[in-house]
Write a structure and sequence with these properties.
- The chain is an alpha+beta fold and 278 residues long.
- It folds into 2 domains: 98 residues, Winged helix-like DNA-binding domain superfamily/Winged helix DNA-binding domain (Arc Repressor Mutant, subunit A), CATH 1.10.10; 160 residues, Restriction Endonuclease.
- The chain has 12 helices and 10 strands.
- It has a 7-stranded mixed sheet with strand order 4-5-6-7-8-9-10. A 3-stranded antiparallel sheet has the order 1-3-2.
- β7, α10 and β8 form a beta-alpha-beta unit.
- The N and C termini lie far apart (66 Å).
Length: 278
């Protein structure tokens, strides 16, 4: 069949989507919740789905104009960079292509500057891991939620991400939680119980933007019977797998890479790590 047949597949004003350029872009926007223009370009560049910044910018603009991606106002917190999120139309298009999704409108359900910052900083964590070249996969919360709600092989909690990296020839899988702001104290009992119920994971990494919050979260979860690791966001962005982490089972810090290569899940036997200067 010739070009005439191909063009008839699309009605006036519609858009023909490239499987190697448009769909990876839409998936990244969906999985990120909110994402800046710079972050989106870097993700696609690392995945070999974009090379020219101008071509990339034109592609995003085209998707915005056709209502598949939502462009948000520039904010001082993003240093003037444009922020995007997926539209309901864009999400629907991805579902039609087989994307696993329990749809929630994140712009309404998770509004506010704090939630925007949470997503953008989580993107930075994801990018830091991708730059190492050791990332096997990153399962975003959208897919974690879908697996947990719709299958019998899901997770006990909606983690920010489930991550697998390859270290010393071994695949190391862990849950990632980025605690940007403290929750009400009673929530941590439920979180602890859910983590203890988890059957698909044995490693759990908590990152926080400052030491006071990190200490608060670690203290609330210190009685958890699973091995939890705690580290600072800024240290992770600088050192990634060399990040010094402490656990709820020992006062001694160790590199994240060593923690992930440890043996089977250990029971809690120690006390909360003491406060130290950072």
């Amino acid at each position: 069949m010739g070009k005439g047949w191909y063009s008839m597949r699309y009605w006036k004003g519609s858009i023909a989507l490239s499987p190697t350029r448009d769909y990876p872009l839409l998936r990244q926007v969906l999985h990120s919740g909110f994402i800046t223009h710079r972050q989106l370009f870097e993700f696609l560049k690392l995945d070999y789905c974009a090379s020219s910044r101008n071509a990339f910018s034109n592609r995003v603009l085209r998707l915005v104009k056709h209502g598949l991606v939502v462009r948000h106002e520039r904010r001082p917190s993003t240093r003037g960079d444009i922020v995007y999120s997926i539209s309901e139309t864009g999400a629907s298009e991805l579902v039609a292509q087989g994307e696993c999704l329990v749809w929630t409108d994140q712009r309404n359900a998770r509004n506010g500057r704090m939630q925007l910052a949470h997503f953008l900083e989580l993107n930075q964590i994801h990018l830091a891991l991708k730059r190492t070249g050791l990332l096997v996969y990153w399962t975003p919360e959208t897919e974690v939620r879908s697996q947990s709600d719709l299958t019998s092989s899901g997770y006990a909690k909606y983690y920010d991400a489930v991550v697998m990296i390859r270290l010393a020839g071994r695949d190391c899988k862990f849950a990632l939680e980025y605690e940007r702001t403290p929750k009400a104290m009673h929530y941590y009992d439920s979180i602890r119980q859910r983590i203890e119920m988890e059957t698909s994971l044995t490693r759990f990494l908590y990152l926080a933007p400052n030491y006071d919050l990190l200490h608060f979260v670690a203290e609330k979860l210190e009685r958890c019977k699973r091995r939890l690791y705690f580290g600072l966001l800024r240290d992770f962005l600088e050192q990634t797998l060399a990040l010094p982490v402490k656990t709820n089972a020992s006062p001694v810090s160790l590199p994240l890479s060593s923690a992930l290569l440890e043996g089977k899940d250990a029971q809690h036997t120690g006390t909360l790590f003491p406060r130290i200067a950072v």
